[in-house]
## 1
Amino acid sequence: MARNTVGRWTDERPAAYDYQEVPRGGQDTHQPGLMPDAGVATRQAEKAPAPKRADKSRVDEWMEVEFKFGGSRIKRKAPALILLGLPALVPLFFMLPALITLNSNTFAVSVDDTLGTGAEICLFLCLLVTPMVTLTGQRWFVPLRRWYGIMMAACAFGDATAAGITDNFAGGVFGRLAGHVFELMGFIMVMLVIPLVLTGNPWAQRKLGKYWKRLHRLIYVIWGFLAAHLILLEGFGFERGSNGSGFAGDGDPIFHQRLYQYSACSVFLLVLRLPPVKRWIAARHKEGRMWLVWVTVLPLFALFVFGFIFIVNEEIFKGLDSFTEHPSGE
Amino acid sequence: MTSETYGIGSQEQTAAGRVILMVSSFLAALLVIAGLIYATGTGARHKAAVAAAGCEPSLFISGLPCTTEQMMASRYEAIVTPATQQLNTEIAAYAVNERRDLAAAEADLSAEVVTEQAFDNSLAATTFTPQNRAAAEALIQNATSSGTPVPLAAAILTPQVTVIADALIQANQARATLLAEQARSPSLIQLRSFNRRVQVASAAVQTEMKLIAKALDAPSPAG
């Protein structure tokens, strides 16, 4: 009996299942997408009349402390969130000179690399929040999920808009956006992002009620479509010598294969979302053996970092080319 | 009893998570180790890839089309071939005039000097200097941005070939100085008295030209 009920990992679970630590298994750890912080608070207040303040981590409490800055008082977490959130603006910043000078060549050649890769980075950062909450028990950085989601949408819209205007594919705007299957995947992703952006606010969350969470699970569909997009774009293999960051290759063709990068990042993000894994982590936390969790998760996190570094490397190289308006067509 | 049942149930519930995490972490660890081992060979693979593409490693710019040996040789030939043809014509004209027309012979020598200086300037523009390298990179970037082929002017010489090119320029300048002095001769006899020294200077130029042609694997121009 117990196995049939205790194993659930939903919002409806009874509070009596004390091995599921509330901050970890609370609503935020589920939410995949663009949940506003205020909305979280509202829903938690509605569903859990007695919030488990005692479970708040010490770091969360420390982050909530206000300090004087100029004439006002701000919470410690505010500058931390700004610092962590700023890098999400970088892909758009890279395209700014081309936008100001209306350099259609830069848009045509490198917008997909700069903004497309930027959207991928923001998606992974958005998806990273939940596993980090699971692992650390801290929640002060949860607002970043919404921010990264919005920036992912901005990059995706920018990419689609530029591709629709400047690409060389036949068939008009639609042909340029969805004329090839890999483009169609990208186009579908952009279409799926639209409802997430439109409903990524407290008002929409209140209005949609229980459907809000289901709707925002679309982020997982986007995650899946990104895999299809990259498979169609790069295939499963890699080209020797010509798949690096230079025409003659930089000796690391495997690391520059986008599907491999995606896979390396996704394993960590996926495994840490699996209910049995979350239960195991919660149980170890309750036993006070978080060191075991960290040791076990470390290789997965290292793999994530490995993949993510090369995505960021791609973004920086292509982005700087775009910024200087000498886009690399590679 | 209830707590015991619950405890066992809880352990069973977390066992699946433990297995998933252990297996995935083990595989991730293998991948990370394999990746790190693979990364140690980056330098060797980079050299091999650059060589396979016929690129000059010293001229390689990450993310941009590389300069090949063929491009270097073509650019050198594009400079040396017309200059050599021009010089051969002027030397032939001097050979005709050196015994009968002082003014015409001096004009031929002056023309040789101009040709030599133009050649030196063109060759100096291909040497491996920070300015030339920046100009070449700009040309390559522009070509890449506009989707056009990389122009020949973007091909500069490697540091090794630049050493020979500098020696060639020096030898050429020595010959040009001698020719300019010869062109100021007041008589045909004095004019011809320079010929021996000019031949020695020309031989020095020829030696450097053969060396550079060998380094570039390009045919040595006749003359």
Note: Chain A has one domain: 83-323.
## 2
Amino acid sequence: MQEPETRHPPAHAAWRWALIGLVVAAFAAAFGYVGGWLAPGRLTPKRVIDAIQANGGEYPGYRRNHAKGICVTGRFESSGALAAYSTAPLFAPGDTPVVGRLAIPGGNPYAADSSIPIRSFALRFDLADGEQWRTGMNAMPVFPVSTAKAFYELQVATHPDPATGKPDPAKPKAFFAAHPETAAFLAWIKTAKPSASYVTETYESINAFYLRDAAGQRHAVRWKAVPEQPPAGDGGPAAGDPDYLAADLAKRLGEGPLRWHLRMVFAADGDPVDDATKVWPDDRQTVDAGTIVIDHMEAQADGPCRDVNYDPTILPRGIEVSNDPLLVARSAAYADSYLRRTSEEGHLPGTASPKENHP
Amino acid sequence: MSRADTFHPFARVLHWLMALAVLSMLFVGAGMVTSVEARHAWLLAIHKPLGITIFVLALIRLGFRLTHPAPPLPADMPEWQKLAAHASHWLLYGLMIAMPLIGWGMLSAGNYPVTLGAGLRLPPILPSDAALFAWLREAHRYLAWLFFLTFLAHMGAALMHGLIRRDGVLQSMTGGKRSA
């Protein structure tokens, strides 16, 4: 290296420079493709959340979906009955603290509780060994679609026309006609009524998962939280109160803790494990894993559920994701929503500030 | 076996192993955050353990580099190129160490369990804090871009040394015979 005078200018220098440029450009192009900048047709988490946000409106600091909700806390009292099917430590007899959230779907945190006949219940189980189980359940038997792409197209088809504030009815009609898998959901929602209470609803995982037992055997399951509270017989919600669910919850918690049984439903051979649009027959083997006891509620603005991303793929050992494509899509899209709202909360440059006085 | 004009064989093995790991990591990261398909899950399952592997290797490499100096750059290299070479090398070291720590810290601040697969889980290194999560998550993104651009410059410069200047700098890392 100390003898530069022995070096000669290389032959074909222009071609050599071109080769270097080509190699660098090839790496840059490959990265651009993988990162989506050179693949504009790809459905990314950002596009999914943009579509939801376009329908629900912009509410900085809030979740992009299920924006209106209440934090609840309590514990899971395991019966021990599921321990034979899953090595997850929370299924051994004993208690596990939970941080939950009761909510309604949609991106508008000011929506009236009667605006949609679906309620949701998300839970984070904090296991003693530091593991977590997060689940987001909905009070409905099936999901309208089975893939992220169809979900995105459904958002686009139901996008409100800026002129009328309502979707063009021809678009959802065309979407549902092109997606026969939506039939079970459409049949259900036709008769579904907005419940007067969060606490009388049965919440379903809808997506399937696997339990893994101590012998390494896996069992396909769906789960549901079945209320101990009897169906509401105390009249409908107060007329004109758009927030009757919160008022009902406060009243009921004032009378004592609320309970749901966590029931694991086991698939039989042939039951679809990767398709959330299909119900499983009612007669499937069910194990009562224990009781979810909720004894406290807090407004979400500063409650313990506010900064929780209820990503359903965050699971302890002993519970595993299935091949249901919606699970991965939920995980990817929730992460994007979570970054948006935490960026707004943290006042990162270029983000809108959350409004004070959250509902 | 180590000559004054080539890197120590251990440094060379580490360099090429980490080149492969870091480049894979950048593509895995870019691919997983832009997909809602099944690959999002398996890329994420690679990303976390590979990141920790890079972190450990980077610390070993930094220790080795500090005790085993690199061969000198050619005397006839313009000063600005020498400066750029040194600055980009230390930037690459900094990113190899900082990126895994930011990823780990970001998951800690988001109160996510830091799982590496096979039942392995790391303890949180930061308190649960949503705003801190957002800052770290964005830092992870922008520093990944900086990492990739620095890699392009590093590779382009290495090829320039090997194909245009033919001054033995590329061979000091490939271990091949000098062409001059």
Note: The first strand of chain B starts at residue 114 and ends at 117.
